[in-house]
Amino acid sequence: MSCWVPSCPALSMCRDLTALPITCLERAKDLKTRLGILLHKPELGHRIGTSSKLQLGSRQRDSSREVLEWRESFDQLLKSKSGVTAFHTFLKTEFSEENLDFWLACEDFKKTRSKTKLASKANRIFEEFVQSEAPREVNIDHETREITRKNLSGATSACFNEAQAKTRTLMEKDSYPRFLKSASYQDMTKQATSRGISKRSHT
């Protein structure tokens, strides 16, 4: 009599049943958590998607406005990173990108605080862009070239100011108007204008 009781299926089932409520509760909690995550995912995805679209739309509006501002003045173009990139690409087609590269090098040079770095940078810029027969010689007059050479002896953040100003004027009067008339910029303005019209028609 004592041998069959412990192995009785009914008793074994009872033991399982006593543990069942706790197991079911744990499983139910786990299932609820998983279902909650699954149910919220589409909503979350929708929110993220909507947010991304709004941000993209905002960037497009800013970009469109920026493109149209480039024609207002040369300063507006130079203030814009994408404007400088577009202008640089255009200058490459005219084989005159060294003027903009020199101007940008001078802007970076002005931010240098170390006197040692200032001197080494000044020499490097002069050798690359300013001296006669430089690898990427900019189009400045002999007098400005000599003034810049003398400035190197006591290099300060202003030693390229005159040469930079001459190069800037040259770009503003010569290359910039051609850039505004170029097919690439005309296409950009058409796209920017059409985006603006499209936005107004949907509001």
From TrEMBL:
The RGS domain extends over 73-189
Could you tell me which SMART domains the record lists for this protein?
RGS
Localization = Membrane
> Which keywords does UniProt give here?
GTPase activation, Lipoprotein, Membrane, Palmitate, Phosphoprotein, Signal transduction inhibitor
Q: How does it sit in the membrane?
A: Lipid-anchor
Q: Which GO terms describe its cellular component?
A: membrane
Q: Which Gene3D superfamilies does the record cross-reference, listed alphabetically? A: 1.10.196.10, Regulator of G-protein Signalling 4, domain 2
Which GO terms fall under biological process for this protein?
negative regulation of signal transduction
UniProt KW Lipoprotein keyword: yes
Q: Does the keyword Acyltransferase apply?
A: no
The molecular function terms of the Gene Ontology recorded here are: GTPase activator activity
Q: Which InterPro entries match?
A: RGS, RGS_sf, RGS_subdom1/3, RGS_subdomain_2
Q: What does this protein do?
A: Regulates G protein-coupled receptor signaling cascades. Inhibits signal transduction by increasing the GTPase activity of G protein alpha subunits, thereby driving them into their inactive GDP-bound form. Plays an important role in the phototransduction cascade by regulating the lifetime and effective concentration of activated transducin alpha. May regulate extra and intracellular mitogenic signals.
Q: What is this protein called?
A: Regulator of G-protein signaling 16
Q: Which organism is it from?
A: Nycticryphes semicollaris
